Structure formats: C-alpha cells, structure tokens
Amino acid sequence: MNTLKYVLLGLSVIAVMMAWPAGVRAAKQASSPKVEYYPHQQVAAAFAKGGTLADGKSGRAIYTVMTAQREGPGEVEVHKLDTDIFYIVKGTATFVTGGTVVDARHTAPNETRGQSIQGGTPHHLAPGDLIIIPHGVPHWYEAVQPPFHYLVIKVR
Fold first, then answer.
1. 22: helix, coil or strand?
2. Which H/E stretch holds residue 52?
3. Which H or E element spans position 37?
4. What is the pLDDT of residues 37-49, one digit of tens each?
5. Domain residues of the chain, as ranges?
6. Which run of H or E residues covers position 65?
7. Fold exhibited by the domain 43-155
8. What is the pLDDT of residues 92-101, one digit of tens each?
C-alpha cells in the first residue's frame, strides 16, 4: 500500500510540474501590456491644445508622450533624470544643445532652467527631424519660425 501512495504522490508531482509552465505562460499572457493606438484625429486635437498624449511604464523605464507647439524661443532646460526625444512635425527652429547655462536656477526637483546657453551646438530643426537630448544636457530653442509643432517623448 505504501508503494501505491508513493506512486500516486510521484505522479501528482509530475502532473503539477508539467502543468506549471503552461500556468506561467498563461499568467504572463494575461499580464501583457496593452497596445495603445491614437488615431490621427486624436493626435491633431492634442497638438491643438498641447500637453500629454500618453504616459506609462515599459520595463523599468517611465515614458511620457506630449504634443507641443512654440511661437518663439523659450528658456533653457536641463533635466537631471529625463531624456528628451523631439520629432519635428511643422515649422523650423534653431535649437542649441550643450554649453553653459546662463542665469541657471533650479525650478523643481531635478530640473534647472536658464536664460540662454553660452558655447552650445546649434541645430537647424525642420519637419521630419528627430533629436535626442540625453539627461543632463542643456537644451534651448533659441529661435523659432512659427507655427512650430513637435512631438516630445520623455524617458526616465
């Protein structure tokens, strides 16, 4: 009788072990991230008002997708934690990266703003251009030819 118990126990363990991977796969499939789709009408409406279109998490990274427009130059920005990715949709601008921030001041945790950049590298941005600004790099729209629309992806 003891032998029968051990055989049944062994078969039970084998059955659980064989079912385990399928259960893990099902759990992983159930917890898969959802695909987000934004039709062009929704994106165009977001550009009309500006602001966050989407945000979320992928692995250990946090991201935000924003629509933005400028009518003129802005302040210098330095993000201690965020990498900015800009995709230019409409208009042109002179965008300066690197260099030294003039009149730097902390405006929020891990964020610095300034009046201008001294000694940076200018980039002429036009529709279809993409520029990636790693965290910690000063960046500034020195001159803008409106209307200037761009997509911003922030990654932390």
1. helix
2. strand 51-58
3. none
4. 999 999 999 998 9
5. 1-30, 43-155
6. strand 61-70
7. Jelly Rolls (2.60.120)
8. 999 999 999 9
